[in-house]
Amino acid sequence: MEAVPARARAYVACVAVAALLCLLPLPSVRTSWWELALLAALSAGCERAAARWRFAGTFHPVLLAGVFLLPPPAAALVALPGALLSPVERRPRGLRRLWRAAQLAVSVWAAARVHWAMGGRDAVVASDFPYALAPAGVAVLVLCLVLSMLDGGILVLAERMPARRAWHGLFLRSLGPVAVHGLAGLMMAVLWRSPYGPVAALLVLLPMYVSWWVFAQYHRERAAHQATIRALVQAVDIKDEYTRGHSERVGQASMMIARELGMDDDRTEVLRFAGILHDVGKLGVPTRLLRKDGPLTPEERRVIELHPEYGHEMVRGISFLGEARAAVLHHHERLDGSGYPYGLMGGQIPESARVVAVADAFDAMTSTRSYRRARPVGAALEELEKCAGSQFDPRMVTALARALARHGWHPAVTADETDGTGVPHPRPTVAGRHGVRR
Amino acid sequence: MSASRTSRRPPPLLALVHGCALLLALGALGCVLWTGLEERGTALAFGVLITVGELNRRSGPHVREAAPLGAAGALSYALLGENAGAPTHHGAAQVVTVVLAASLVGSVPHVGRGQGPTADQLARRVLTVGFAAVCFQPLYNQGTFTRWDGPAYALLLLALLSLTALCDAVLAAALAHSRTRWPFGPLLRDELRALLGIGSAVVATGAVMALAVAVAGLWALPVFSVPLLLTQLSVRRYAAVRSTYRQTIASLARATEIAGYTPAGHARRVAALSREVGRELGMSRPELTVLEYAALMHDIGQLSLVDPVPAGATAVLPLAEQRRIALLGGAVVRQTGVDAAVAVVVERQADPCREQPPAARIVRAVNAYEEKARDAGPGGPLTALEELRLGTAGDYAPEVVEALARVLSRDCLTSPVTG
């Protein structure tokens, strides 16, 4: 854990002082203290539940209901217990807690101040729709704005991020969720002031909570799913230790090419999976053949060349892979029609397969195999350019060269290479990797 | 509940439920045609809300509440007593008519794609909304609830909605029971458990919408449907990732088949049959998922073998070798990120049955049955069952073998729909 820079500490202290200034008029504020206590307890409870279930972000509906119901200093106080008491995972814990509390107090105060000035409180009491939406909307905007400004500041000072990157998209990304929470908070505030009282207002939280819970489940399931995809690859690694890490690296190179070609995020992700899974069909090739040292007979070569079809057979049932399935089937086709399994030519070969073919060849050349040492990145690129047009799509080769020039080649060493699960991994991971980097 | 009586003769319950729903719908329609619509603006607003909810419906085998927004809108219209402080006058008949009309309109695009709501879903919707409206509207319009004001009124609505949700769960379980003849108890337990999740959100939203319209008028509908649409969206994404996850697990399971270690379709057949047996033994939905995943991946340990076991028949191998393969399989499964319970089941599939968890007993027995029965020709299943019964003393749990026999005899009589 690196130390927090002094200027970041000073920044946090300044925001904390600002928060104290916001809370200062509290003793003179006329408000109903039990309402304040109830909202603060609710907010703290939601924070704790969120931390236990590893949700990201803050449960804003309660805070926003406070903004719409209470005078500004009281609304700022609602945010404090939740932020101060909620567990923090990363060190330094005290500083992080203080930062969260001060940041929330200041932004909630600002939002409540604007809401108050626009007469939003009377609109809530009189449930004056649609006018009540206007001050609420402005308050949500202010909350988002102040939060993202303060967040950007800490990113610049503590993480030394460039200012433009720190603020870029911070506001727009937080606006959507906070606006939805704002609508729920407004409904909560209106019901709170209605004859039905806080009981009815609490009911608003239930659907929000369920939505949140489902969202967390979604993330958990997605992580598990990714692990399963990786397990598919590891099943290949069990049979053929020499390609260890090859799949992940081809995935990374395919992703770099896709980004360089300007494909959108979804397609880039699909191409990453295409790279990861391209050799999954090797599961169907007898282990003895894969591990054979020395030259293969034509018969044996034909058996190994069946692996794209085996691979396609395996993944064709996974619908989200989309065009990655075609890439698995066709990644050994060549532009001049001399590849396998179908001998497709030029444009007949799916784009995804042309991407993976280049990524596959690049990684094969830059990593050590049983029969030869790794080549440096520059030599591999030269070789690719030589074969562009006959074997590879020149567009993909150029894109790879540009991406490598811009970002370099830093193949990620996956954590699962050092697992302790008892599956036998007799041979060590690829040696001589340092020769690969430029 | 008439569940035990209906388990022998399924059609009467279905016919009864559908008939009741149809009668209720026709009666309500006739009533509305006779008296005309009260407060058309409110009816239209709720109709639009329900239609929007139905348009966002998603269907699939593992979806609990296909259209939560539609359901919540329908319930809140059934319990609507005031609109911006002024009492409403619509009766139960109007509620049923509006909800049914809006549901039908909203499902038109889905019918076009062949994924419309089933007769069961429509009947449930009509009956539950009818139940809530009949409980509430006549009493409200007579002024019985005037003494219930403030928070007590909110709690009254909540209690009514909870009662409705309970009835809906019983109805859903009974319908599923009479269609599939799976045991009623676990089905009801699954329905009740689902009430805690998306069901509670629907109930709370129904109550909140009824109260919010009473306070703030019809503006409350768009304001509060946005958060619920968000819920619907996360539920949908969750369902999507779950289904792709299943597909991936199934592909991983096929790895052994493509590698030539096991015959084609073996893992899928063992999984489908294990699921049926698990259901017969009264396992809950999460337990069934663990069982299914474990059954799909039970042979994955064979990937670590350099040479395949002849025909993939592990049940005839020496016990020590079976255990070694099971342990290797468990190690692979642990890397897949599935529930650790799945790995435990895979690891212990070759243990003596007294020490096994129930899911491992099922996988072991079903796997042995599948291997024995598959090449044995027409008389194979019976011979295989007989062998399992004889081997029951140490290897295969008697209750599992009996459940397997029941499932098999049922599937021979009815159509072989599994999975």
From TrEMBL, chain A:
SMART domains: HDc
Pfam families per UniProt: HD_5
Name this polypeptide is given: Metal-dependent phosphohydrolase
Domain HD-GYP per the UniProt entry, residue ranges: 221-416
A GO molecular function held by the record: hydrolase activity
CDD domains named among the record's database cross-references: HDc
NCBIfam families: HDIG
Bilayer-crossing regions: 62-86, 98-116, 136-158, 170-192, 198-216
HD domain location: 243-365
Coiled-coil segments on the chain, per record: none
Keywords: Hydrolase, Membrane, Transmembrane, Transmembrane helix
Region (Disordered): 413-438
Gene3D superfamilies linked to this entry: Hypothetical protein af1432
UniProtKB/TrEMBL annotation, chain B:
InterPro entries according to UniProt: Cyclic_di-GMP/3'3'-cGAMP_PDE, HD/PDEase_dom, HD_domain
Transmembrane segments: 152-175, 195-221
Keywords: Hydrolase, Membrane, Transmembrane, Transmembrane helix
Domain HD/PDEase per the UniProt entry, residue ranges: 259-381
Molecular-function GO terms, alphabetical: hydrolase activity
Protein name: Metal-dependent phosphohydrolase
